[in-house]
Amino acid sequence: MTPPRMDKEGRLWCPEALAAERAKATFDPKELSVYIYGKEYLDRKAKILALLEAEPIFNKSVNYYQGRADRLKRALERGKRSTQLAKQHDWNMDDIAMADFLVDEPGPYGLHKSMYLITLRDQTNDEQKELFEKPAIAYDHIGCYAQTELGHGSNVRGLETTATWIEASQEFEINTPTLTATKWWIGSLGRTANHAAVMCQLIVKGKNLGPHPFIVNIRDLKTHKPLKGVTVGDLGPKFGYNTMDNGFLQFDHVRIPHINMLAKYASIDRNTGQYLKPANAKLAYGTMTWVRSRIVMHARLVLARSATIADKDAKDQSGETPVINYSTTQYRLFPILAQSFALHYVGLQMGRLYETNMKQMSKGNFELLADLHATSSGLKIWSTTTAVGAIEVARRACGGHGFSMFSGLAHAYQDYLPEVTWEGDSQILSQQLGTYLLKTARYVFAQRPGHVKKSITNPTIEYLLNYQNDPHFKLKGMIQDGQYLVKLFGHRAAYAVAQVARRRDQLGETWNSLLHEIYEMGMAHCEYMLVKYFWQALTTDEQLAQGKPLRSVIEPLFNLFALTTLESKAAEFFAAGCFSQGLYEETKVEILKALAQVRPNAVPLVDAFDFPDFLLQSSLGRFDGNVYPDMIDRASREPANASIINNDYRSAELVRGEAQSELLIAAFKAQSKPSL
Questions:
Q1: What residues are designated binding site for FAD?
Q2: Fold of 140-278
Q3: Catalytic annotation on 423?
């Protein structure tokens, strides 16, 4: 047997250290992969990955060295080739989404494939499907979703772009009345889209009927030049996301036909000008609710990706004790894994509720819409804020190498950061959730105990009823009991809602003065949902039944998630009267136990998320552990190494000529393997 490679000080070389970590696994990572994703997903990923890796245009080795202009060009090339592959191999929407995930680059067709097509799917009538959706699916029309304005983000009701009904010609006139009404930040708009789903204030006979979506042709289908009355372009470099052509858009009294108002739920009678109202005023939020549910599921992968890179980096034997054995490192990294699983389960539940809601709405039943919209708003805040914070925690845990682009964390942070803001800023969305929670609380608290039925589909009513029946939390239990933890989180959330309701309704405090408390109330609600559905999975999922290996791996992650959240928000639980100093000290002890239980499986757990090197583009997170050769190989590719500068400040010459460092670079490459 060949002994493992070690350095001159007797420490394990990276690949051997990684192999040693994998040997500690108490479960089969492939089995967990199937549990998380399903075999169909994994087979699809393997199939699409093989196709992409065989295409030279998807070689990512140049990504870290290109400027924005080159990256935009490369992104367009990749977008075109990906679309060609989709046609060639008859990809469905799941295949296309998988390719986008693996390419891991905001591309020019991104908003066409997501927001635009979903808007057409959900908000068109049969005639409009033929006129707009069919050519969009064929990529004859390339669209975007134009809602955000220069002066208006999450405040949809405050949008200024207008669509005025012109009765004489039976047309709508789209207009940008002010500078702040300029559509701004719109993905796929800057250079790519020829159509836009534009959210406008509908004006009929001088009356503003609120925001509605309209399809507007903005560029000529043959020349791709902006049409008359349309001003459109790319809005320039950004903090990240620079392969996406986010753009601006203005209209100067542009006329569109009557059919261009998306009319599945609301419309204008072309003969009388009468407004046919939607059955529910929040139907305009349908697309955003779907997007927010996907944002939650994406956030779990962002968390897992960060943990994958940092956990593998921390395994290195850089001293007598591996860094990952220190409790401080475990405190930083293991909760990220636990948060990922928590989002996984709440995301699955959101997906189920969304599908149920869509079926019910098609039959005129809007019972679930308010709760789904409110909770999706809150979970969008929690998931994105947590995920973007986790990337930075992981980056710092990687030490100096975390600052290198080669870590794979810097570009992940840059491209993920907009998720915190788009589709709803945290402060605005927390108010939407807060409004719903207070309305629900007023309904529940106005009833006599026992007169409101618990709702399987409305956990908000469930925890508010529990609070109404036991406001002082006389329930006794142990924090080692998951069901007791669910009750704790429910009581804390209900107390927060009850206090805001009391201060608002009884003490007369202004909404503005309570915004911080409303935000905290919303996050308490979300954390209850996360704990509830995580525990529900452990107790109802057949694959996690008692005694099965996967349960013994995932249950410590539940404990870690619930207990670290409890510890970080201890003041709120104390205030709610459901926590004590003794329980607080016990919580800290139980966290250490959970960390110790997770430790042997730290690397196998991230292996189970099955992120290929093609996706990660990380020297630190490589599956084979060849960290240092890969970093040297990537450094050797730096274009700055190809020239010799003139460092004499007295000379105007900047570059003397081509570099004479070929021998150095060749020596570097001799020690390394090509980057992926």
A1: 148, 187
A2: Butyryl-CoA Dehydrogenase, subunit A; domain 2 (2.40.110)
A3: yes
Pick out the residues of the known binding site: 148, 187
- 428-600 CATH choice from 1.20.140.10, 2.40.30.20, 3.60.70.12, 1.10.1040.10: 1.20.140.10
Contact at 8 Å (CB) between 418 and 243?
Answer: no
Provide the 3-class DSSP secondary structure of residue 310.
helix
Residues 6+ apart with CB under 8 A from 140: 221
**β-pairing, 162-166 with 195-204?**
parallel
This prediction has a pTM of 0.90
Predicted confidence (pLDDT) per residue in 541-599, tens digit: 988 876 688 999 999 999 999 999 999 999 999 999 999 999 999 999 999 999 999 99
Tell me the C-alpha distance between 652 and 568, whole Å.
58
Q: For residues 181 and 160, is the Cβ–Cβ distance under 8 A?
A: yes
**Which residues sit opposite 247 in a β-bridge?**
186, 234
Report the alpha-carbon distance of residue 526 to residue 516 in Å, rounded.
16
Q: Which helix (H) or strand (E) holds 186?
A: strand 183-186
Is the domain covering 286-424 a CATH 1.20.140.10 domain?
A: yes
**7, pLDDT greater than 50:** no
Sign (positive or negative) of CA dihedral 332, 337, 343, 346: negative
Quote the CA–CA distance of 548 and 552 in Å, as a whole number.
7
Cα separation of 570 and 463, whole Å? 19
Q: Could you tell me how far CA 472 lies from the centroid of its own chain? A: 37
Give the side-chain half-sphere CA count within 13 A for 518: 24
Mean pLDDT of the chain: 91
Q: Tell me the per-residue pLDDT of 505-555, one tens digit each, with 9 for 90 and over.
A: 999 999 999 999 999 999 999 999 999 999 999 999 988 876 688 999 999
Strands 143-146 and 195-204: parallel
- Catalytic position from the list 423, 462, 527, 572: 423
CATH of domain 15-114: 1.10.540.10
Q: What is the pLDDT of residue 184?
A: 97
pLDDT value of position 368: 82
Give the Cα separation of 272 and 167 in Å (integer). Answer: 8
Determine the Cα–Cα distance for residues 535 and 594; give it in Å rounded to an integer: 15
